[in-house]
From TrEMBL:
Catalytic activity annotation: malonyl-[ACP] + acetyl-CoA + H(+) = 3-oxobutanoyl-[ACP] + CO2 + CoA
A GO MF label: beta-ketoacyl-acyl-carrier-protein synthase III activity
InterPro entries (UniProt xref): ACP_syn_III_C, ACP_syn_III_N, FabH, Thiolase-like
Main subcellular location of this protein, as a coarse class: cytoplasm
Name the record gives this protein: Beta-ketoacyl-[acyl-carrier-protein] synthase III
SUPFAM superfamilies, sorted: Thiolase-like (SSF53901)
ACP-binding as annotated region, ranges: 252-256
Pathway, per record: Lipid metabolism; fatty acid biosynthesis
Subcellular location: Cytoplasm
Keywords: Acyltransferase, Cytoplasm, Fatty acid biosynthesis, Fatty acid metabolism, Lipid biosynthesis, Lipid metabolism, Multifunctional enzyme, Transferase
A Pfam family annotated for this UniProt entry: ACP_syn_III_C
Domain characteristics, as noted in the entry: The last Arg residue of the ACP-binding site is essential for the weak association between ACP/AcpP and FabH.
């Protein structure tokens, strides 16, 4: 059975950076109090990128995909599978994956979206890995892309300070050399109300609440417990000890969740990739954005073992252990 090897990565961020101070001033003008000190001490977030009104999820996804394809050195026509993770698609249908395929000008390959919120990228990566290992695809484009700023209630200080927009992409290729070593996906739908956007469309109108709502403390506790178990499971499947992982690239939601997990897994902070300070929580885009940053600045190198983890609404969580 072939391995799925990551042969390229790329990312895209909108041009508009909103610092905590600027966001605090914007909220203060509406009578809502927050501060850089509160946001940094509770989450580690210092700024976020916010897409302009005319920038869609597919635009960010396309830019990240183009960079990943250029980085891999393949001809885009080789791609025979596109999986895009998002909870903020351009349309109800068709999928954003199909829109990206159209922008890339490569008709023919299977293309579909995966919806697992902030776990979306590890769900998409695991799905692509299964296709490749089964011999059903040879070259997959896997994208996480979001414009969460569109589903944030900018009058809710408990959530609006946490999220940002962006996209990241991998090119995976079938290879005889080790690539993805093990994967582990889980969900507990009974927890769907602790993090959700419960609006729907009926008779041409949004019915229900169109904004993201969250029980922050329940999410925090569930994330730490589920991700520790997931990491141990994926390492056991691959037959490696967690403390021998070279790089941990966790979902970038909160630096306190990340450091707590690092301690439980015996991983020092200098082996954990943190971008939540710059990107905030970009949901399905967060893991490939963080991975790409650490790969491009030379921290993640060929031969190393990297643990990727996602967690989010559903409730969903998952891990991918990969040799670069
Ligand atoms: C959201 C989170 C940062 C809140 O931190 P917390 O310590 O749990 O804070 P609480 O929700 O208990 O709120 C504490 C106080 O801060 C206030 N507060 C909330 N947001 C605030 C903000 N942006 N600025 C200032 N005060 C704020 C609350 O109103 C509350 O005030 P009160 O005590 O007067 O009622 C934290 O729960 C968290 O990170 N959870 C996980 C979220 C996450 O990762 N989500 C994405 C998963 S994919």
């Amino acid at each position: 059975m072939p391995f799925s090897k990551i042969i390229g990565s790329g990312s895209a961020l909108p041009s508009n950076i909103v610092s905590n101070d600027v966001l605090s001033q914007q909220l203060a003008a509406k009578g809502i109090e927050t501060s850089d000190e509160w946001i940094v001490s509770r989450t580690g977030i210092k700024q976020r990128y916010i897409a302009a009104d005319d920038v869609k999820t597919s635009d960010l996804a396309f830019e990240a995909a183009q960079k990943a394809i250029a980085d891999s050195g393949i001809d885009a026509a080789e791609i025979d599978l596109i999986i895009l993770a998002t909870s903020t698609p351009d349309y109800i249908f068709p999928s954003t994956a199909c829109l990206v395929q159209s922008k890339l000008g490569i008709a023919g390959a299977a293309a579909f979206d995966v919806q697992a919120v902030c776990s979306g990228f590890v769900y998409a990566l695991t799905t692509a890995d299964s296709y490749i290992r089964a011999g059903n695809a040879k070259c997959a484009l896997v994208i996480g892309a979001e414009t969460f700023s569109r589903i944030i209630d900018w009058n809710d200080r408990g959530t609006c300070v946490l999220f940002g927009d962006g996209a990241g992409a991998f090119v995976l290729k079938a290879s005889d050399e080790p690539g993805i070593l093990a994967t582990q996906l889980n969900a507990d739908g009974s927890l769907h109300t602790i993090l959700h956007t419960a609006g729907g469309v009926q008779h041409g109108q949004v019915v229900g609440d169109p904004f993201l709502r969250m029980d922050g403390q329940a999410v925090f506790k569930t994330a730490v417990t589920s991700l520790e178990a997931s990491a141990l499971s994926v390492c056991a499947k691959a037959g490696i000890a967690p403390e021998t992982i070279d790089w941990f690239v966790p979902h970038q939601a909160n630096v306190r969740i990340i450091n707590s997990l690092g301690r439980k897994l015996g991983l020092d902070e200098d082996r954990i990739v943190v971008t939540v300070d710059k990107h905030a929580n970009t949901s399905a885009a967060s893991v490939p954005l963080a991975f790409d940053a650490a790969r491009k600045d030379g921290r993640i190198q060929a031969g190393q073992k990297v643990l990727l983890q996602g967690v989010g609404g559903g409730f969903t969580w998952g891990s991918v252990l990969v040799q670069i």
